[in-house]
Amino acid sequence: MAFMTALAIGSLAFSAYQQVRQGKAIKAAGRAENEAAQEQATLTDYNAQIADAQASDAITRGQEEENRYRQGVRTLVGSQRAGFAGQGIDVGVGSAADVQADSAFLGELDALTIRTNAAREAWGFRTQATDLRNRANVIRRTGQFAQAGANAQGNAAYFGAAGTAIGGAANLLETRYGFGRSTKPAA
Question: What is the pTM of this model?
C-alpha cells in the first residue's frame, strides 16, 4: 500500500511539474515572439525614416533640376536675343519679342512641372513612411498581445498544476483514510 501511495504521489508530482514546465515554456515563447515583433517594428520604423529621407531628397533634387532648367531657359532666351540682335532685328518688339516670351513661358511651365513631379514623388515617399510607421505600431501591438496571451496560458498551466496536485492529494486522502466516503449503511 505504501508503494502504491508513493507511486501515486510521484505521478502527481511529475504531472504537476510537467504542467509548470509547459507554463514556463509558453511564457518564454510569448516573450520571444514579442521580442521578435519589437525588432521587426524597429526595422519598419527605420524603413520609414529612409522613406522620409527619400522624400526630402526628391524635393531637393526637384529644386536643383528646376533651377538648372530655368537657367537653361534663360540661356536659350539670351541666345535668341543675341541671334536676333546679330541680324539687326530689334529684340524688344514684334516676332522677336514673341519668340522670347514664348520660350520663357514654355520654360516656366516645364520648370513648374519639374517642381510638381518632385512634390508628387516626395508625397509618395511620405505616404510610404506613414504606412510603415502604422505597420510598425501594429507589429509592436501584435507582439505585446502575443506575450500577454502566452502569459495567460502559462498562468493557466500553473493553476492546472495546482489543481492536479490538490485533486490528486484529495484522491489519495480519500483512498488512504476514507475521506469523503459515506459512513451510513445503505438502506
Answer: 0.71
